[in-house]
Amino acid sequence: MMKEEVKQELTSHIIPFWNKLRDDENGGFYGYLSFDLELDRKADKGVILHSRILWFYSNAYMTLKDESLLDYAKHAYEFIKDHCIDYEFGGVYWMMDYKGQPADTMKHTYNIAFAIYALSSYYRASGDRHALELAYRLFDDIEKNTLDEYGYQEAFDRQWNLVDNEALSENGLKADKTMNSILHLIEAYTELYLADHNEKVGERLKFQLGQMRDIVYTPETNALKVFFDTKFGLVGDIHSFGHDIEATWLMDRACDVLGDEELKKQFAEMDLKISHNIQNIAIDTDGALMNERENDKIDHTRVWWVQAEAIVGFINAYQHSGEESFLNSAKGVWEYVKREIIDPREGSEWYSEISGEHIPHDYKEIVGAWKCPYHNGRMCMEVINRL
């Protein structure tokens, strides 16, 4: 029943919603829809948003075999290809204006990773070799411009001079390196390796997995550290429940795609420990996953993407362990999503956030630079393909 409900949510709600945001005048997709469902046709267009849209339509096509979805993917691809890539200095811009001109020329490893992720998927969906060539171009940009002796640096100006990493810092903390960027490099390089099985990509993917295992993972608590200085010294005391459960299945998938049996075993054991920990400490009484812990304070906010990743992560843990409790946890989060996160209003999609008191945060947009069809759309496709 869950699989059928999730497929219905994808085909009858999420896809039609995003179809209507296509901008045929200026290219790409509209960049902002307020909580009050007011569309800003002249809002800036996030490059992360467009990479995630490209990934979404490419994979929706591969999952559902609906040719119209490939057309939407091509539309997103053309905006990224023609506007978002910096062909002079490399990488992709951070933000475009509504006409597709650079509004913020910052280069960020996390952002470039998502472009690689999207272009690799579009190549798999369409067979367009130019998309794969662009993905390799961006892979080379990351490997040439961002590495120091410890790992991947993150935030740069247009010409690759280091700048403050404000884009991925939060909670009043400044981080030079983040678990989030390493995780999404793993995600991106997994997709690129799946597309072409390039040996160098595989080597770098194994390096990133090693960083997650040896630096980011804390075996004493079965949790992932979040923020670091440039030498990977810990910054702050934060435990991000959503990133932990998302990381479990993305790391398992990377090992599966690599086909490395020893890595598969190592990460399956580690990821099950993380999944058990999240199951034990992060599920609230209503079945939802809480957001994070900072120091001794729990943030009970229910964030849309956290719920989506919890469903996939718990299903992945169930498939690796056979433990019914994981499947029950996934079903419990889905019941919460149906009840509270899916916005019942005509012309909307999912709320961004719900308070611990079950009130939608009306200061959070329905569509924005970070609010996209990638987490919830991907959850739907993973459920369809796994169950």
Automatic annotation (TrEMBL):
The keyword Transferase does not apply. This is Cellobiose 2-epimerase. The lineage of its organism: Bacteria, Bacillati, Bacillota, Clostridia, Eubacteriales. It catalyses: D-cellobiose = beta-D-glucosyl-(1->4)-D-mannopyranose. Pfam families: GlcNAc_2-epim. It comes from Ruminococcus albus 8. Its EC number is 5.1.3.11. InterPro entries: 6-hairpin_glycosidase_sf, 6hp_glycosidase-like_sf, AGE/CE, Cellobiose_2_epim. Belongs to the N-acylglucosamine 2-epimerase family. Belongs to the cellobiose 2-epimerase family. Keywords: Isomerase. Catalyzes the reversible epimerization of cellobiose to 4-O-beta-D-glucopyranosyl-D-mannose (Glc-Man). One of its GO terms (molecular function) is cellobiose epimerase activity. GO terms for biological process: carbohydrate metabolic process. The keyword Isomerase applies.
